[in-house]
Specification:
Number of strands: 0
Helix content: over 70%
Strand content: under 5%
Main location: mitochondrion
Enzyme class: translocase
Organism: Leiolepis reevesii (Reeves' butterfly lizard)
Shape: elongated
Subcellular location: Mitochondrion inner membrane; Mitochondrion membrane
Catalytic activity: a ubiquinone + NADH + 5 H(+)(in) = a ubiquinol + NAD(+) + 4 H(+)(out)
């Protein structure tokens, strides 16, 4: 395992820990999830370029597309939440209410 792979694993773990521990604001949770997705993009790009696999060359582009969709949906939820509740605290949201 190279130092680059170790650094990427540690960064992914820190983003995962940040998303699970810091659940006060919706914006910080969305940023941690976006960080995890970008680390996955970098890992798949490094793996496909290191191993010279042409069959998996489209996977990083698919991950970027899903990341853009996730970011737009997250920002939409953030705007709607801040308009209806006047803040982005996750404790104010009642997700079980219809």
């Amino acid at each position: 395992m190279t130092s680059m792979h170790l650094l990427l694993y540690i960064t992914f773990a820190l983003s995962l820990i940040g998303a699970s521990i810091n659940r006060i604001h919706l914006m910080s949770t969305l940023l941690c999830i976006e960080g995890m997705l970008l680390i996955l993009y970098i890992m798949t790009t490094l793996t496909s370029s290191t191993l010279h696999l042409t069959s998996t060359a489209s996977i990083p582009i698919i991950l970027l597309t899903l990341g853009a969709c996730e970011a737009s949906a997250g920002l939409t939820l953030l705007v709607i939440t801040s308009q209806s509740h006047a803040n982005d605290h996750l404790k104010n949201l009642n997700l079980l209410q219809c």
